[in-house]
Amino acid sequence: MNPPSRPKKSFGQHFLHERRYIERIVNAISPRPDDFLVEIGPGEGALTFPLLAAAGKLTAIELDTDLIPRLQANAADVGELSIVHADVLKVDFTALAHRAGVSCLRIAGNLPYYISSPILFHCVEHAAAISDMHFMLQKEVVDRMAAEPGSKVYGRLSVMLQLACRVEPLFEVPPGAFRPPPKVDSAVVRLVPIAPEARHDADPDRLHTIVKAAFAQRRKTLGNALRQWMDTDAIRQADVDPKARAETLSPADFVRLAKVETAS
């Protein structure tokens, strides 16, 4: 048996090792033999091998070349493991689904906390090719993802994810479940992309611009925060009060703002 890998700070590695939490995550995912599973950052394989045993095959995306030989060796008697050596932010999930001949992927992973938001946004860009996602993240990030309008942690991440997915926090995971223990609590969350026919029809780039600007300076009113993109009359056309602040608006309010046509 190979000795445990030494976690690398440069990759933000914290290896999950406590069996009961591994089992809870696998049960939440509930893998089936016909699933096309993709794991982001398999690490030492704590989730990889139980998922592989249940589904029979799995594609793992791993950037750390030192971990790949161990994963390949340990998977030999478990199932068919394909490893993509790449930065997940450069992986085209839509193309991956097409190459595999499947309509949708199921994605899971213990995401590096320092780049969790970029990974989430990257996955959302490929939501049409994903049936669900199960991620372990810093609890603070999960709280932001699921926050409702009016919450102190409600912000751009909340709005953009909730417009693309159903966000369902599942359970918390303490620092002691990892090696080395992180300095923060973690949580597992399920994301289920909204069906294409039920998603908003606002221009994605304009929506992103409006939401980002609105939350850039949270204490500003919308009339001030969005003045570069729309005047107060245009804000009122969206049935939104220009004196309101971003954290009081629902995701649907931002969609209406993005759809208002303004004079060029």
Automatic annotation (TrEMBL):
- Recite the lineage of the species: Bacteria, Pseudomonadati, Pseudomonadota, Gammaproteobacteria, Lysobacterales
Where does it localize?
A: Cytoplasm
Enzyme Commission number(s) of this protein: 2.1.1.182
| Main subcellular location | cytoplasm
Q: Which SMART domains match?
A: rADc
Identify the residues that the record assigns to the Ribosomal RNA adenine methylase transferase N-terminal domain, covering every copy: 21-195
Classification via NCBIfam families: ksgA (TIGR00755)
The record's annotation in PROSITE patterns points to: RRNA_A_DIMETH, SAM_RNA_A_N6_MT
Q: Extract the GO molecular function terms from the UniProt entry.
A: 16S rRNA (adenine(1518)-N(6)/adenine(1519)-N(6))-dimethyltransferase activity
Question: Which gene holds the coding sequence for this protein?
Answer: rsmA
Q: Which residues form a coiled coil?
A: none
- Give the keywords, sorted: Cytoplasm, Methyltransferase, RNA-binding, rRNA processing, S-adenosyl-L-methionine, Transferase
Summarizing the function annotation, the protein's role is: Specifically dimethylates two adjacent adenosines (A1518 and A1519) in the loop of a conserved hairpin near the 3'-end of 16S rRNA in the 30S particle. May play a critical role in biogenesis of 30S subunits.
Q: Which Pfam families match?
A: RrnaAD
Recorded source organism is Dyella caseinilytica
Catalytic activity, as annotated: adenosine(1518)/adenosine(1519) in 16S rRNA + 4 S-adenosyl-L-methionine = N(6)-dimethyladenosine(1518)/N(6)-dimethyladenosine(1519) in 16S rRNA + 4 S-adenosyl-L-homocysteine + 4 H(+)
HAMAP family (alphabetical): 16SrRNA_methyltr_A
Protein's recorded name? Ribosomal RNA small subunit methyltransferase A
InterPro entries in the cross-refs: KsgA/Erm, rRNA_Ade_diMease-like_C, rRNA_Ade_Mease_Trfase_CS, rRNA_Ade_methylase_Trfase_N, rRNA_adenine_dimethylase, SAM-dependent_MTases_sf
By sequence similarity, the record places it as follows:
Belongs to the class I-like SAM-binding methyltransferase superfamily. rRNA adenine N(6)-methyltransferase family. RsmA subfamily.
Residues binding S-adenosyl-L-methionine are H14, L16, G41, E62, D87, N110
